[in-house]
Amino acid sequence: WEMGAFHFVQLHNDSDYEVPEAQICSALSWLKHDLHDAFLRDKRIVINLHKPQVQSLIPVLEGYEYNVVGIFYGHHHAYVGYDGDLVVGAIRIPRFYSGSVQWNLFSLARFDADRLTVTAIDSSTGAPVHHATAAAYDNVGAGAHVADPFTYVFPTHDCPAGRAPVGEDGA
């Protein structure tokens, strides 16, 4: 789905999830074509999936890394917020845990023309919470404090819109 300049992708359980007996195939081939289509329309891309196993995305994202502005996932319900970067080429794509109802946590994402700002929110109070990374966050009530949200300023590049990465034909 899309909203304005942003193209959102929802993947399976993880990026290469397969259950052949249920006719569920890896989404990586589909994703490559979807990224190419969004790239040609100069869209900023946000990827969502359940598990934080994102290393298999790297070869698919190569050539589109300037357009991918964030990766969101869940799985570890007690975690929320920034979880480091996925490095693709020279670009660092921020990764975020989205939180869970069970732990009264969610990530509030704001998409602007040149940046993505993500704030971890305690839904029981509506207040922001802070931790250095999602893995360092162990309990909402213990030591949570307000801090500035994580902001990612989108990288710029010299590749004109509509020009596919080297070796891509979009087919």
Query: Termini distance?
Result: 21 Å
* Total count of strands: 10
Low-confidence blocks of residues:
132-147, 160-164
Multimeric organization: single chain
Order of helices and strands: EEHEHEEEEEEE
Which percent band covers the strand fraction? 25-35%
Assign the structural class, choosing from mainly alpha, mainly beta, alpha/beta, alpha+beta, or little secondary structure.
mainly beta
- Fraction in helix: under 10%
The biggest beta sheet, please?
A: 10 strands, mixed
The mean pLDDT is 78
Count of individual helical segments: 2
Could you explain the architecture of this structure?
This protein has 171 residues and is mainly beta. The chain has helices at 28-40, 58-61, and strands at 2-3, 6-10, 44-49, 68-73, 80-88, 91-100, 105-111, 115-122, 127-128, 150-153. Strands 1, 2, 3, 4, 5, 6, 7, 8, 9 and 10 form a 10-stranded mixed β-sheet that branches. A hairpin with a 4-residue loop joins strand 8 (115-122) and strand 9 (127-128). The two termini are 21 Å apart. The model is unreliable at 132-147 and 160-164 (pLDDT under 50).
